[in-house]
Predict the structure.
Amino acid sequence: MASTSDIRNGLCIRYNHDIFKIIEFLHVKPGKGPAFVRTKMKSVTTGKVLDNTFSAGHKIDDVRVETHKFQFLYADGEFYHFMNQEDYTQIRLLEAALDRPDLLKEGEVVTVLINTEDNMPLSVDMPASVILEVSHTEPGVKGNTATNATKPATVETGAEVNVPLFINEGDKIKIETEKGTYKERVKE
């Protein structure tokens, strides 16, 4: 058993007969009244996000997890197939277990959280950023660069990202996976 002082991003807990992963948390110590912890939790089974508040010192049931590196192989419908980098075993996960499946390209290495009690995969942690090629975007209009103007671009995985006007088809761009936003253009 853990308490609210052990809450951190990525912690998996058992709550309401389900397993949740902490996405965000904030320890709040108001001037009047007891302290509490405000959390945003994502269900690892359904992908549903809950906002919850725990009072300070509240006992939480944490779930022991291991992390393993898996390589993304392919997707068929709602299932995504991964291969363990150490023993080459394969697993398949529902699309709901992934945070940003639209930014996942074949061959990408991700971290998979596995419940140590029953060896079931819980969720997938994407790398902080991915490099993808722009497959389609409208040409930028010259002279339109006085402000931070952006345009939509479709990358090789099918995801749509807003990019600056100077980005063209065939350019490789770095995308921040947490927000799904453009970070920079990558030169080879």
Notes: The mean pLDDT is 86. The CA atoms of residues 40 and 51 lie 5 Å apart. DSSP finds no helices and 16 strands in the chain.
